[in-house]
Amino acid sequence: MQEANLITRALLLPFCPVRGRSMAFTRMIVVANLFISLVFGCKGSVSTAMAEVGCGISGRVLDEKGTPIPFAAVSALQVGLKLMPALDRLAAFSLLPRAASVLDLCCGTGHLAAAMCRRGLRVTGLDGSEDMLSYARRNAPGAQFVLADARRFGFATTFAAVLSTGDSMNHMLSADDLAATFLCVHKALDRGGRFVFDMNMAEAFERQWHKSSTVTGVDHLLYLRGRYDRNVKLGTTEATLFSKEREWTRLDLRMFQRCYALNEVKKLLLEAGFSMACAQPARSFGIRGRLAAGRTFFAARKV
After folding, report:
1. Rounded Cα gap, residues 172 and 256, in angstroms
2. What is the pTM of this model?
């Protein structure tokens, strides 16, 4: 678990240049230090891990020995905050009474929960990773958090709205898993309550998944690369992280997302008892760049 702690700490650092230094200079320092450590004796262990399922389900990845590694290690980006323009419109926050109850499904590190708390909403966050929730409790001390499987959860009370961001629903790797999640959400909502979520659609997988990206800091370097198998509708993201505490360590992770057709998602929502409100591309809400590519927002109402 030492590698897990190192990778979690590294990825939860702000992804920005060190004060007074350019990103290029920061990257140069990291790569130089990494090269020196690798050439002259990196003693860190190398372990390969595979994420069988994603955020909010098991919330964990397993190494080759079956040892759990926190999913927080590879899923700590504050994506939800960047999607707020769409959530504001689709969830109709302004129409909700003050102190209305909202469920943040697959809440991750709690940044979206914190933003909703600041609006006076009573927020409950649910995630499948205790490591994620430990950060969420710090980021959103005014919210309540529950460790549970997104496919199998229930509450004694219901919510005015349920939100799920950061393409968490794509981590449901089968239609049965997605259907089970939708049924749980339906039971958790007030009558007339809204379920708002975003998903990566075919455009994202076909145009973005083959690309690679790098995230750097003074003591970590993360390299992400992906591929998409159109035959089985499965996107794979491989992440290699070098992180330095006393010495450099390396951790390799693999995560999966399922590509669903628009009509398939709508059909599963209707079968779960929802009425479809809309399905709109992220660009229609002013979201731009790679985050918008192939991303669609769904809004459904419990009838």
Report:
1. 9
2. 0.77
CB 245 within 8 A of CB 44: no
CA-CA distance, 67 to 204, in Å (whole number)? 31
| Contact partners, residue 12, CB within 8 Å, separation at least 6 | 72, 76, 109, 135
User: In this structure, which amino acid lies at residue 210?
Assistant: H
User: 147, 150, 148, 141: which is closest to 179 by C-alpha?
Assistant: 150
| Residues 56-99: tens digit of each pLDDT | 443 444 444 444 444 444 444 456 667 878 888 887 777 788 88
Rg (CA), the chain: 19
DSSP-derived secondary structure letter, 15:
S
Q: Where are the alpha helices (DSSP H) in 127-286?
A: 130-139, 175-188, 202-208, 262-271
Structure tokens at 112: 């979206």
Helix (H/G/I), strand (E/B), else coil: 201: coil
Distance CA 52, CA 68 (A): 11
Beta strands, E only, the chain = 46-50, 60-63, 68-70, 101-105, 122-127, 144-147, 159-164, 189-200, 212-217, 220-229, 234-244, 248-258, 274-281, 295-302
Segment 210-255, tens digit of pLDDT: 988 887 878 888 888 999 999 999 999 898 888 887 888 888 888 8
